[in-house]
UniProtKB/TrEMBL annotation:
Gene3D superfamilies: Tetratricopeptide repeat domain. It comes from the Bacteria. Keywords: Membrane, Transmembrane, Transmembrane helix. The keyword Membrane applies. It comes from Caulifigura coniformis. The chain crosses the membrane at residues 6-24, 36-58, 64-83. This is Uncharacterized protein.
Length: 265
């Protein structure tokens, strides 16, 4: 019964459980992941020689582990089911708010989102951040600048990896005529999300509006490079993005007949 393969599988299961814990806390920037992993891997590696040397202990450990696996499997299925249901519910709320906004009921749309904030928080911090950012965007649409700023502050505190926070805050500055601050906000977002097609596109746009055309061309070249790589894309439809967002910038910068130059060139 003292099978090394079973022991290795048990250690791997411990590592998988630990990685699952890290995933649930992925939006907590203060968490020392490398220390957690060092402790976890140390325990997993220490179990192998300890249990190999004590067959009786190994048999007991295997029995406990088998029951634990069954419990964890059931819990995982339940958690995934409710997570999916909650996420679908938040998506429906966001779509409903968009429909209300389209028919001129923007204040009602914001109220609907605010009433479902707790549902978004149950999913994770990033989802709650997305909902708050949408409230900020809609507040901008009705020129409620103070409310938009408050929602954005809360959204950014919840998640530094929500690109719409930076995009919406940049729009807030741009509407006030502060184009340099708009550029600074997008660059701050890119420090956290350098591979974001969305933010690189926004940077090119705001740099263009600020008259910083050389920098805008570099940002646009970076965006096109990311789209061509087709990796880690944060836009739903890359082809539509090229047509609606990229093409106008190419025309505006007078690059229709000129090759874009990247930093590598």
């Amino acid at each position: 019964m003292n099978d090394p393969a079973d022991l290795i599988a048990s250690s791997l299961l411990l590592v998988v459980i630990g990685e699952g814990v890290l995933w649930t806390r992925r939006n907590e920037p203060g968490l020392s992941r490398w220390k957690f992993r060092a402790l976890l891997y140390g325990i997993a590696m220490g179990l192998v020689p300890l249990l190999m040397a004590q067959p009786a202990l190994f048999a007991r450990f295997t029995t406990i582990l088998t029951g634990l696996c069954l419990v964890l499997f059931v819990l995982l299925i339940v958690v995934l089911y409710f997570f999916k249901r909650q996420l679908q519910g938040v998506n429906r709320v966001l779509l409903h708010a968009q429909e209300l906004h389209k028919v001129g009921k923007t204040s009602d749309a914001i109220a609907v989102l605010q009433n479902h904030r707790r549902d978004a928080a149950r999913v994770d911090k990033n989802t709650e951040s997305i909902l708050l950012t949408e409230m900020a965007r809609l507040s901008l649409e009705i020129s409620d600048i103070d409310a938009a700023g408050r929602w954005l502050d809360e959204a950014e505190t919840l998640s530094k990896w929500n690109q719409s926070v930076y995009s919406t805050r940049a729009d807030l500055f741009a509407r006030a005529g502060d184009r340099e601050s708009a550029c600074d906000v997008i660059q701050r977002g890119l420090a956290n999300l350098p591979q974001s097609v969305w933010l690189n596109t926004d940077l090119a746009k705001h740099l263009t509006d600020a008259g910083r055309h050389d920098e805008a061309r570099k940002a646009l070249a970076r965006t096109i490079e990311l789209l061509d790589q087709e990796k880690h894309l944060d836009v739903f439809n890359p082809e539509e993005w090229k047509e609606i967002r990229i093409a106008p910038l190419v025309q505006q910068l007078g690059l229709a007949e000129r090759p874009l130059v990247t930093d590598a060139d």
